[in-house]
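Case study 2.
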Amino acid sequence: TLMLVVVDDLFSVFINGQYAAQFSDNSYRNGSIGLFARGFAESEVASSCAFNDIWVWQLSFDKPDIASPTP
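Prediction:
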């Protein structure tokens, strides 16, 4: 599973419930949410993707203090 927690311009990424990454991006201050999947033309293997159980919440709290993962 993929979970993306976004507070202001801070993005925290979780994969299968484990913290994976964090980054900032202030390119977009507001807008819509969209998901897409794409295959690569040079790949000979067919690609498929399914999205289900997509949830969106609007939260009101201070930025989370999430430490960066250690290798």
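The chain is about 0% helix and 25% strand.
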